[in-house]
Design brief:
5-stranded mixed sheet
Length: 161
């Protein structure tokens, strides 16, 4: 085999290692429509592990509740007027955790004071070989083997040309 072919195989293998990452969907509160005042969100969040790239799903009554991403100070004081991002769209909303850092979420309209808030610490993606603890309230979104198959097909087409 020629030098270029080995370089192509090496690059392909490196890409395969990089893309072996799966995102998870976390149903906030543990159910389909659990963004409400009957759920202990701190307890729920403490039993989850969040990684960059994961998604949060909020199911709620949009006429009563909203979801705001806030800073730590606003989270601690339940201040809903100076939010970072209003996640609220239609009552079945998602938010992607793009960076490994702390995130703070509250419900405005007075519900934060009733416990409708949670803070999470998002971790960097683990190495592909590291086992991840996906709780029953998480759902894999992108199977890594689908991406792997596409890359392998591309590589074989290049080799055959």
């Amino acid at each position: 085999m020629g030098k270029n072919l080995w370089e192509l195989i090496y690059v392909t293998m490196m890409i395969l290692i990089i893309v072996e990452v799966e995102s998870s969907l976390h149903r906030v509160g543990g159910g389909r429509y659990t963004w409400n005042s009957d759920v202990n969100f701190s307890d729920w969040a403490n039993h989850q592990r969040f990684y960059s790239g994961d998604w949060l799903y909020f199911g709620f009554n949009r006429t009563r509740h909203n979801i705001l991403q806030v800073n730590k100070s606003s989270y601690e004081k339940c201040v809903d007027s100076d939010f970072i991002f209003n996640i609220t769209r239609g009552g079945r909303d998602v938010f992607q955790l793009l960076e490994p850092k702390p995130y703070y979420f509250i419900c405005g309209r007075g519900y934060c004071l009733k416990g409708m808030k949670f803070a999470i610490n998002v971790l960097p993606q683990p190495p592909p070989s590291a086992p991840t603890n996906l709780a029953s309230t998480t759902t894999p979104l992108i199977p890594s083997n689908a991406i792997t198959a596409a890359i392998l097909i591309f590589t074989f087409k290049v080799l055959l040309v």
